[in-house]
């Protein structure tokens, strides 16, 4: 969708930072850029805040803080109101919020420690740059910490596409472990299928199952490793819808449940349950429509994609495959769910391997 | 074990007869009876151990305290003999005598406000963690204001002795102190100890009074307001909120939510014998909040409709378990079984660095007669003291294990129970 002319400058900045290749120089051979090169949402948010700092007309600390607050609110408001905007890649605004909060907190601290306005601006700008680079190094650290938990010969289940998990699997494979990944398809955005494509690139055999088959497949699984959009104060995680189902099934069958998340995803939220999360994130069903398709009616839906010719793939869906619902039926399409801490065995973060109760410890240290 | 010198008695000493457990117990009771009844000697000091685990000794002066006849001893429940037994306190027991002239009680003479508050503690007029703490600090302000330093003594030591005497009086003669009182008292003691040697009496009094006011304002009143604001984020239109008994923190947060315009209703669960919920529900209804009142027995019936439970706390243990009015743990358990989140509203000054795993080791015994007095006049249990196999037990507190706690709302925000230990560390960086 084209940018509107009167969109706030900060959102233009956000689009710029989230466009593919924003995080890395364009490949010299002219090939299309891999989605992996887009920076993480919180990092993009922080880059936007840096932009505000570098272009501020304010000369006082209070003025600058006010500007940054407004910018953060604009970003989060945008992410909350247009969740299906492709620039967000289906990610929720939690990661954006946590990144902004973290940065604002750092700014407040810097104001208290340094006396001079210009010194503060310089310090924050420098910290912001370091933070942007942090994203990549954090991922590497997590991969090295988490890889030993993927044992040789294991079946590992995951959910949705996470670059952090990809790095972890890549590292585990590099260290010589031979393991198989099981991933549910991840309706409605096909995140699991995208993950399957990405993980098989690093040489890991992947098996895709239906979302509804998670409990069945769990019988043979040795460990679950997922990413997170946000880690909340009680040690729980917010992640793509379906993570909670997977956690409950894993818990019921004694399978360890691991979460790989960078520390900038630690959010100042305290959901009591999924109902609380839905209300807090104000998920409006009208913003996230769903299509219902009976894929068994599609004649080109054969077992192996190579059997389908290019022309066959490009035709529109046959009428009999599409299921139309009357307006009286409400459809819920929440993008994410909340998994309580009691289902999580360990978290792999750039601060180390943490138990869920250590998350609050870190947050208290950070914010008080 | 070989090579150790033989520590047994010399062979010619007659060994004491081995008593059975029951016989040893009877001997102990008899000894205690003689101690309490006699006491003509100056050394009749007993030790009272409160829930805080502190040992406070009755100052052994002229007349040791006679805490009523030993008739009630055989009616105490053996399993709770580690707690001070409940004894009815008359005004005389609480230090209020009609004798003119030199005071016959422990010296120095206690301020009249101290004696008055002691009586209020003993008969239950002042109840609740915050109320007891505020009343105590108010009395300490009076004590400090009217304090006359003795010549030749260091001001801080003299004052320290005075306030300690007051605190001991309450704890040993009136009612065991609460964790909230203990925290505030520790704060005051460190203030007094920190007074500089050359400070004038007037300056010292001003400073102490100011600091006491600041403590009450920041750790109690302001904390209550911040708790209300954090808790308010979890209250939404249409919610059914359940609470137990009467808690000042919960009252503040419910009033605040109502003032913010939220539509919700409250179910107040009440427990015998104190029935504190009756006063609470009047206050809530008076503030325009639709309320329902049930006893604990109706809990499982109501729990299906409840969206969230807010409870008050007497103290917060460092392992995240919560000490509260007896009945609190039952409510938390029922909520947990129905998947209803349970939030405790608790100011940080109530945090204790003790760990408690169950409701037995640290508790307080109340009046056993309250168990049988249902207000219906006579009761089938009226002559329970004469029945040989019958004992009545009235425990005032219980412990809610951390597994039943979804979150604790403090002035630092909503925290998981595992973070209480972190708060202790952050508040006392040593």
- Spatial strand arrangement across the major sheet of chain B: 5-4-3-6-9-11-12
How widely separated are the two ends of chain A?
41 Å
Sheet with the most strands, sense and barrel status of chain B: 7 strands, mixed
Strand content of chain A: 5-15%
**What value does the Rg of chain B take, in angstroms?**
24 Å
Number of strands of chain A: 10
Uncertain regions spanning at least 5 consecutive residues of chain B: 39-72
The strand line-up of the biggest sheet of chain A is 3-2-1-4-7-9-10
The count of DSSP E runs of length 2 or more, i.e. the number of strands of chain B, is 12
Overall form of chain B: globular
Contiguous helical run count of chain B? 12
Structure class of chain A: alpha/beta
Tally of individual helices of chain A: 12
User: What is the averaged pLDDT score of chain A?
Assistant: 83
What proportion of the residues of chain B form beta strands (DSSP E)? 5-15%
What does this entry look like structurally?
Chain A contains twelve helices and ten strands. Chain A is of the alpha/beta class and 368 residues long. In chain A, helix 1 crosses helix 2, helix 2 (41-54) crosses helix 4 (94-113) and helix 3 (61-81) runs antiparallel to helix 4 (94-113). In chain A, 41% of the residues are buried. Chain B is α/β, with parallel strands linked by helices and 430 residues long. In chain B, helix 2 (112-123) packs antiparallel against helix 3 and helix 3 (129-145) packs parallel to helix 5. Residues 39-72 of chain B have low confidence and may be disordered. The interface between A and B is medium-sized, with 17 and 19 residues.
């Amino acid at each position: 969708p084209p940018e509107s002319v009167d969109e706030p400058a900060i959102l233009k900045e956000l689009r710029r930072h989230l466009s593919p290749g924003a995080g890395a120089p364009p490949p010299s051979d002219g090939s299309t850029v891999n989605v992996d090169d887009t920076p993480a949402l919180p990092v993009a948010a922080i880059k936007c805040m840096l932009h505000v700092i570098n272009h501020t007309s304010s000369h006082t600390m209070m003025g600058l803080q006010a500007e940054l607050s407004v910018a953060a609110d604009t970003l989060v408001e945008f992410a909350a109101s247009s969740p299906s905007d492709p620039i967000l890649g289906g990610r929720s605004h939690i990661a954006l919020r946590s990144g902004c909060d973290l940065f604002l907190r750092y700014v407040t601290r810097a104001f208290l420690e340094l006396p001079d306005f210009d010194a503060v601006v310089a310090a924050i700008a420098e910290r912001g740059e370091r933070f942007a680079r942090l994203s990549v190094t954090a991922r590497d650290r997590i991969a090295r910490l988490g890889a030993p938990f993927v044992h040789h010969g294991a079946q590992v289940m995951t959910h949705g596409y996470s670059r952090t998990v990809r790095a972890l699997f890549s590292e585990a494979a590099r260290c010589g472990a031979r393991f198989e990944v099981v991933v549910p398809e991840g309706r409605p955005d096909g995140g699991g299928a995208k993950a399957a494509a990405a993980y098989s690139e690093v040489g890991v055999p992947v098996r895709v199952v239906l979302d509804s088959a998670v409990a069945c497949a769990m019988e043979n699984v040795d460990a679950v490793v997922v990413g997170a959009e946000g880690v909340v104060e009680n040690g729980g995680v917010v992640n793509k819808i379906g993570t909670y189902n997977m956690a409950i099934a894993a818990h019921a069958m004694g399978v360890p449940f691991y979460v790989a998340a960078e520390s900038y995803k630690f959010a100042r939220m305290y959901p009591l349950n999924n109902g609380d999360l839905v209300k807090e994130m104000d998920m409006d069903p009208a913003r996230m429509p769903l299509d219902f398709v009976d894929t068994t009616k599609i004649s080109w839906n054969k077992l192996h994609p190579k059997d389908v010719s290019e022309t066959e793939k490009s035709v529109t869906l046959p009428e009999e495959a599409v299921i139309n619902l009357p307006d009286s039926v409400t459809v819920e399409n929440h993008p994410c769910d909340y998994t309580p801490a009691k289902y999580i065995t360990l978290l792999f973060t750039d601060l180390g391997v943490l138990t869920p109760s250590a998350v609050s410890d870190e947050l208290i240290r950070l914010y008080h | 074990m070989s090579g150790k010198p033989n520590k047994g008695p010399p062979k010619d000493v007659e060994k004491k007869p081995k008593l059975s457990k029951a016989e040893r117990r009877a001997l102990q009771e008899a000894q205690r009876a003689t101690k309490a009844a006699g006491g003509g000697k100056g050394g009749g000091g007993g030790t009272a151990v409160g829930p805080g685990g502190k040992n406070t000794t009755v100052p052994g002066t002229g007349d040791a305290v006679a805490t009523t006849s030993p008739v009630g001893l055989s009616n105490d429940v053996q399993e709770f003999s580690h707690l001070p037994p409940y004894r009815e306190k008359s005004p005389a027991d609480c230090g209020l005598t009609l004798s003119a002239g030199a005071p016959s009680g422990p010296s120095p003479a206690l301020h009249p406000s101290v004696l008055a508050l002691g009586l209020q503690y003993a008969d239950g007029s002042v109840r609740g963690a915050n109320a007891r703490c505020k009343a105590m600090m108010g009395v300490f302000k009076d004590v400090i204001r009217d304090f006359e330093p003795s010549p030749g003594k260091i001001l801080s030591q003299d004052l320290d002795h005075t306030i300690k005497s007051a605190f001991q009086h309450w704890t040993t003669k009136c009612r065991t102190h609460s964790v909230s009182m203990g925290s505030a008292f520790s704060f005051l003691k460190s203030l007094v100890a920190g007074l500089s040697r050359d400070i004038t009496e007037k300056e010292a009094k001003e400073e102490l009074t100011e600091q006491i006011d600041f403590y009450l304002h920041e750790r109690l009143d302001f904390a209550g307001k911040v708790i209300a604001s954090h808790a308010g984020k979890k209250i939404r239109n249409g919610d059914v909120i359940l609470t137990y008994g009467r808690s000042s923190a919960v009252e503040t947060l419910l009033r605040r939510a109502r003032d913010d315009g939220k539509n919700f209703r409250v179910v107040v669960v009440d427990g015998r014998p104190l029935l504190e919920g009756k006063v609470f529900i009047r206050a809530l209804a008076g503030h325009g909040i639709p309320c329902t009142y049930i006893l604990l027995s109706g809990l499982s019936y109501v729990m299906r409709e409840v969206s969230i439970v807010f409870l008050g706390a007497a103290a917060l243990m460092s392992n995240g378990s919560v000490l509260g009015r007896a009945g609190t743990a039952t409510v938390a358990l029922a909520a947990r079984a129905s998947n209803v989140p349970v939030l405790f509203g608790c100011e940080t000054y109530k945090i204790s660095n003790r760990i408690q795993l169950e409701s037995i080791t640290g508790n307080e015994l109340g009046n056993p007669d309250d168990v049988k007095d249902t207000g219906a006049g006579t009761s089938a249990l009226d002559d329970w003291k004469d029945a040989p196999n019958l004992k009545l037990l009235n425990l005032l507190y219980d412990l809610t294990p951390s597994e039943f706690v979804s979150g604790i709302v403090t002035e630092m925000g909503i925290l998981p129970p595992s973070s209480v230990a972190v708060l202790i560390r952050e508040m006392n960086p040593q």
